[in-house]
Amino acid sequence: MKYVIAIIQPDRLDEVLRRLEEKEIHLVTVTSVVGRGRQKGIAEVYRSHKEAGGLLRKTKLEIAVNDAFVQATIDAITEGGRTGAIGDGKIFVIDLDRCVRIRTGDEGPEAIG
Amino acid sequence: MIALAVMVCAAPALADPAVPSAAPAAPAINSGDTAWILISAALVMLMTPGLAFFYGGLVRKKNVLSVLMQCMMAICIVSVQWVLFGYSLSFGPDKWGGLIGGLEWMGLSGVGVAPQAPYVDTVPHSAFMIYQMMFAVITPALIIGACAERMKFSAFCVFTLLWSTLVYDPLAHWVWGAGGFLGLNGGWGVLDFAGGTVVHISAGMTALAAVIVMGKRQGYPSSISPPHSLPLGVLGAGLLWFGWFGFNAGSSLHADGVAAGAFVATHIAGAVAGLTWAAMDWVCYKKPTTLGMITGAVGGLASVTPAAGFITPMGAIFIGVGAGILPWLAVTFLKNKLGYDDSLDAFGVHGLGGIWGTVATGLVASAAANPAVNRNGLFYGAGGAEQLIVQLKTVAIVIVWSFVMGLIILKVVDLVIGLRVNEHEERVGLDLTQHREVGYTVID
Q1: Using CB atoms and an 8 Å cut-off, which of residues 61-90 of chain B contact chain A?
Q2: Closest Cα in chain A to B221
Q3: CA atoms within 13 A on the CB side of A96
Q4: CA-CA 20 to 30 A from A41: which of B33, B54, B94, B360?
Q5: CA–CA gap between residue B348 and residue A47 (Å, rounded)
Q6: Of the candidates B257, B238, B362, B353, which has an alpha carbon nearest to the alpha carbon of residue B307?
């Protein structure tokens, strides 16, 4: 089991979700976040007060998957999320120790669904 | 205590019901004038909630309620103060050679339907009183911008009551009261149509005193987050602009040509100053900012306040350009150079805007705009520099009065109950620590 975390451009979310659906990956948690990569933020100005290196809005996806689906998940996110410009984001893959379904108490790959 | 005071003050009012004078020379109430004053009073009342949103949008999420609460509480505190004794001190029969109004109208005793000379002879006295109340309400609320995000609510309440009574009421009497030593009613003849001195300079200079006494917010300037909701700020600025027509055009006290002229001048100055500030941002910071545009507009409206009913549309453009430039310079360079933390630029925008507008009135006042102008401004000849000198002298007096008195009152309140919240409370935010509430929930 793996835990996939992806930071993408907010306007690519719909396309990424569509590609995930195509590959039968339905379970996903989405969060609005702000952050900064190599792209750096756009400095904001408020009545001469400069907010240097402001953070940019991004969208974060979190997906728990069984090993067989890891590459498909990565492919869906890269295909749907790529614009070719700086700031397209990153994907992180982490080992997942346990997964428990609250309703039934199921554990492991079964619980990921 | 307050209930007792209300009963004591109300007693003479009840015993002496205000009825129209039966004297043959009694002036007739004009329905148009009365309607305009009452509408204007409502417009000016809306400015304080407008100011609440203007200021509220510019602070951090954790402090939004504290600012809204202070503005709305200013309405409550000053309205009661005005009825009990504030109105009487400001506009009551003159005492001590133009220094203060008497207490004859405490509890609005005798303030009823009959018009009150010399203020306005076609409108019920009570309408004039409630109209002036809204000015008294918004003035201390302007000061909130200087102390935002660090002032104890209890200290704010006490300060507001003291400041209204000891600073605003005498000043209103000097400039607008019958027999006041600065104004057109038997004084030096300073031209302040709607409160450049009484409202803007006084609030702005006390704001400067407040930033000196209170000190900076923790982490200023590098760690202060940007405005949490500029859309709220724009909403507030829009409401202020809308209400300002009542503030300035209502100050004609008649539904007449002077009111129309003041309305036009007010709008022009606000628009020109908003445009000017945005242009300055565009040139110096590569982009025009929303915050700059609304700040400029508010500065322009503040600047045109003393001049509104005395100037031509071209005079309004002149004032608007200056109002876009001077506060911009103060906020951009002066504040950073001197390092003071005027959180929301109450001094930079209102103080300097009021000073600029009051001085500029001595340049562009014109009898062509209003026959009440006895001496034209410097630019229009026929009056020479005489009016300008009166304006300058008055500005100097008002600056010293409001700054020194503001400083004293703030120091006293600080010694007795403390002005600032402690460091922990400031970090957590004033909404939770002062009011046990939050403006925005995170979950549901």
Answers
A1: none
A2: A49
A3: 22
A4: B54
A5: 11
A6: B362
Q: With beta carbons less than 8 A apart as the criterion, state whether B300 and B350 touch.
A: no
What's the mean pLDDT in B40-59?
Answer: 98
- Only one residue has tokens 């939770």, namely B432
Dist. CA B161–CA B274, nearest whole Å: 33
Q: How many CB pairs under 8 A join A and B?
A: 26
Inter-chain residue contact A47 with B332, CB threshold 8 Å = yes
Kindly report, residue by residue over B273-308, the tens digit of the pLDDT: 999 999 999 999 899 999 999 999 999 999 999 999
Contact B291 A47 (CB under 8 A): yes
Taking an 8 Å Cβ-Cβ cutoff, which residues of chain A contact chain B? 44-49, 51
B346: nearest Cα among B161, B202, B159: B202
Min Cα–Cα distance to chain B from A60, Å: 18
Please provide residue B364's backbone torsions phi and psi, each rounded to the nearest 5 degrees: -115, 5
Chain B residues in contact with A47 (beta carbon < 8 A): 289, 291-292, 295, 331-332, 345
Q: Which tokens in the block code for residue B167? A: 């600073």
The string of DSSP codes covering B126-170 is HHHHHHHHHHHHHHHHHHHHHHTTTB-HHHHHHHHHHHIIIIIHH
Distance from B185 to chain A by nearest Cα, in Å?
40
Contact A48 B335 (CB under 8 A): yes
Q: CA B231: distance to chain centroid? A: 23
Q: What are the backbone dihedrals phi and psi of residue B95, each rounded to the nearest 5 degrees, phi first?
A: -130, 155
Chain B residues with CB under 8 Å of A46 CB are 226-227, 289, 291
Rounded Cα distance between B438 and B430, Å, is 9
Number of residues that make up chain A: 113
Residue where the block lists tokens 């509220």 = B56
- Amino acid (one-letter) located at B333: F
Residue with token string 């007693």 = B11
pLDDT exceeds 90 at position B4: no
pLDDT at A90: 96
**Among candidate residues B209, B220, B161, the one with its CA nearest the CA of residue B408:** B209
Which residues of B208-317 form beta strands (DSSP E)?
A: none
Strands (E) across A9-82 are located at 29-35, 44-46, 49-51, 56-65
Give the model's pLDDT for residue B10: 44
In Å, how far is A99's CA from the nearest CA of chain B? Answer: 25
B346's enclosing H/E stretch is none
Output the six-digit token pair for B140: 């201390």
For residues B353 and B202, is the Cβ–Cβ distance under 8 A?
no
Examine the pLDDT at B24 and tell me if it is beyond 80: no
- If one compares B226 and B30, the residue with the highest pLDDT of the two is B30
Tell me if B336 and A44 make a contact (CB, 8 A cut-off): no
Chain A environment of B345 (Cβ under 8 Å): 47
Asked whether the predicted pLDDT for residue A95 surpasses 60, the reply is yes
- Give the CA-trace dihedral at B179, B181, B183, B184, to 10 degrees: 50
Check if the beta carbon of residue B214 is closer than 8 Å to that of residue B421.
no
